[in-house]
Design brief:
Strand order of the largest sheet: 1-6-2-3-10-11
Radius of gyration: 20 Å
Largest sheet: 6 strands, mixed
Shape: globular
Distance between the termini: 16 Å
Number of strands: 26
Mean pLDDT: 90
Low-confidence stretches: 255-261
Number of helices: 8
Length: about 400
Amino acid sequence: MGMDTLHVGIGASVEPDAGAAGAAAARTATGQLGGRTPALVIVYASAWYQLPALLAGVRSVTGATAVIGASSSGQFHDGGATLNGTGPGVSVLAMTAGGYRFGVASVSGLAGDPFTAGYEVTRAARAAVGDDAPAHGALLVLTSGQRGDPQAMLSGIYRVAGAAVGVVGGAASDDGAHTGTFVFDGNRVLDDAVVAVWIASPHPTPVAVANGWRAEGLPMLVTQVDGHRIGEIAGRPAAEVFRESFLEPLPARDDQHPRQCAAHAFGLVEPDGTQVIRGATIDGDGVLHTWAPVPLYSAVRAVSCAPEDLLAAAEQAAEVALAPGGARLLLAFGCTARTEILGDRCGEEAKRLQAAAGDVPTFGFYTYGEFARTTSVAGYHNAAVATLAL
């Protein structure tokens, strides 16, 4: 194989000792590179670990290579999945540069000014690849999962990257605890930050997203909203409209999982007729909340799904990203909400994702929201699968 061939290695560990787990997974990953030096290392790990110690373990193997990553609620690769709710787990991807060039950057202060954070991290990541970088590109983005307005951050990214650069990634998660999510840059564990990798490429790098949700009714306008709280839809109480929109009654609220969307949500209608999913829940006071802000006077419609719909969507996301051919790796980002809906069938998603990818390795984690901006207006998704083929 030529020097421009991308080589990848993947390792995983469920060792309870953080440093030992990180080192073990990194040794397996780098050992699959055939003696080649990695250009980028990606780490997804349970927040159960002492994360600085885990990164130290990884870097004891990978040395000076750039390391990025995120805390997770589970990882998946090569058709297998590990959910972290019952214990530790870490997955490590090591890759050579191949024909790509990687520029890494991170910016803190995501909660206070997400637009500026997105703008600055994109400028820094782009500058890190140099002026003579290949013409095409994509931006891999990981964020602290409970910080800031992700759509505002994407607007800042767009100001720099424009429409020609696809954006893909996910919001860090924490085993469903919702107490603290983190991203990694080198040996740093950051809790209010975005880390980004500009992937300069000699050819287009396709980003794809699919969700598997289907509309339950006609579009309706949001007529009163305050951040994540929707007050009115079509001039009526939003929670009342939401309850009436489904043939099956909504499940009882689960205070242990306040973000759980079951199989009911909103679809934010895009100008091209597609829909971006917004998970929704009715709190104990009867107020409707969405997982990400919905703009005033935007069009939404009630959506629902079944397990088979979600599994088919994962295959679709893989097939679209891989359609141009020649890929050596499929990066994927799946939502924790999907694992709650799939239940005992959760492992099937990783299997079907890999089956659609064929011989191309897959690598990903379960997020608190997915980034996938291609040609649509919005780029932050709930309960979807986002993919990037390299």
